[in-house]
Amino acid sequence: MLRWRFSRFASPIAAFVLLLALTACMRGPMVAAPLGSPQSPFPGRGQPPGPPPPPPGATGPVKVAVLLPLSGANADLGKAMLEAAQLALFTTGNDRLTLVPRDTSGTPDGAVNAARAVIAEGAQLILGPLLAAEVDAVKPVAGEAKINVIAFSTATQLAGDNVFLMGFLPRQEVVREVSFARESGVSRFAALAPNTEYGRVMTDALREAAAQAGGTIVKTETFDPRAGDAGPAVQRLLGSAAPAGVPGAAPPAPPAAGFDALLLPEGGETLKQIARRLKQAGIGAPQVRLLGSGLWDDPSIAGEPALSGGWFAASPPELRREFETRFQATYNHPPPRLASLAFDAAALASVLAKAGGSAPFTHDAILNPSGFTGVDGLFRFTPQGLVQRGLAVIEVQPQGNTVVSPAPHDFAGFAF
User: Fold this and answer.
1) I need a surface site. Which of 32, 50, 179, 276 has the fewest CB within 10 A?
2) Strand 311-314 relative to strand 392-395: parallel, antiparallel, unpaired?
């Protein structure tokens, strides 16, 4: 059964969006058109009245380039992201738009050659590249051709002018978590972060977010992620409050840690090890809330008992689960986490191509302040080229993660 949604641009240009499901029984993750108030990507199941005619000048073919590492060290990720982009085009049912994929090989030179090739073929928008060095190399080439780039990097220094970044930005995760923590009565924050650029970015974001929200930073501590044991860092963080602990013994009474929330921007086995040490020392919910990062958005650590009661900010899980189900059914393998970025970018391109006439990918179209709704939830771009996302706050529970603060439905009063 076909399902339709009609809407208007917040700009003076009238537009329509057709959202086409792949099957009659599955709701599908879609990107909605820019709206005065972005709607759910899932339209109703009633029979449609039929689509309106396309706007004037919107009937010609449109080429959109997809620059990804289809060979080299990141080839598997690049190929999966291309699959997601192709799935988006099929899902949105846009016969006008053609994806033009090119291999960057994961190198700046490869990205430049790919960009020049697609520009010569008439591409009007570039999706990708993936890596910061590739984006840096492509930016001037695309700028000279007056073509906008929606890249998958998180290197914020590259945003602006003709480059818009789709990547998940760590600072926004921290701001969302701190905001929710303050609403929940938490005021004293600490951080235990890896001694890496990522760890420093997250710690700096915590300082800024806590200050803006009226909280205080009690202590920060770092550990060497190459050492294989964060125990000494945990000991330094807790000081005299950290007991030695006896394997198999019951956790001691919660110590006077001096903070109400602890940011742990780590993932995988290292995160589990740290969380278990903290639990052994009596640090955990509800006295101390562990705060995570995008690295917690990982099925391999979901339900970890030592993280129980911890909070992290992420895109709304329901929409992404449906995307993951559809991707698996289509390609017979699960999508990597970043595949959803390619889906949303390609679906956004499809929406703009349908609605934007002969020049659909202008700054004004991409910068629509009302935003878009994709499989990673609500998003829009700032004039500085950075993505803003409507994130949910998720609590880790042994039986499965639970949303404790839903993502916003629009950007009214948006503060993170």
Assistant:
1) 50
2) antiparallel
pLDDT confidence bin for 394, thresholds 50/70/90: very high
Distance CA 399, CA 385 (A): 39
Maximum alpha-carbon separation in the chain: 74
Cα dihedral 223, 227, 232, 234, rounded to 10, equals 50
**Cα–Cα distance list, 218 to 92, 168, 277, 294 (Å):** 49, 27, 20, 23
* Residue carrying structure tokens 């945990």: 234
Please give the structure tokens belonging to residue 258.
């001096």
Question: Running DSSP on this structure, what letter comes out for residue 65?
Answer: E
pTM: predicted TM-score of the whole model, two decimal places: 0.81
Find all residues with CB under 8 Å of 70, minimum gap 6, and list them.
78, 79, 82, 101, 103, 104, 105
Q: Where are the domains of the chain?
A: 62-168+318-385, 170-314+394-405
Of all helices (H) and strands (E), which one includes residue 140? Answer: helix 132-144
Sign of CA dihedral 16, 22, 25, 26: negative
- Are 309 and 280 within 8 A, CB to CB? no
**pLDDT over 50 at 358, yes or no:** yes
Average pLDDT, the chain: 83
Topology adopted by domain 170-314+394-405: Rossmann fold (3.40.50)
Question: Domain 62-168+318-385 - what CATH class?
Answer: alpha beta
> What's the rounded mean pLDDT across residues 281-294?
92
Q: How confident is the model at residue 31 (pLDDT cuts 50, 70, 90)?
A: very low
Contact indicator for 311, 291 with CB cutoff of 8 Å:
yes
Please give the backbone phi and psi of residue 224, each rounded to the nearest 5 degrees, phi first. -85, 115
Reading the block at residue 169, the tokens are 């930005």
Q: What tens digit of pLDDT does each residue of 178-199 get?
A: 999 999 999 999 999 999 999 9
d(CA 346, CA 244): 53
Q: Cis ω on the peptide bond leading into residue 286 (within 30° of 0)?
A: yes
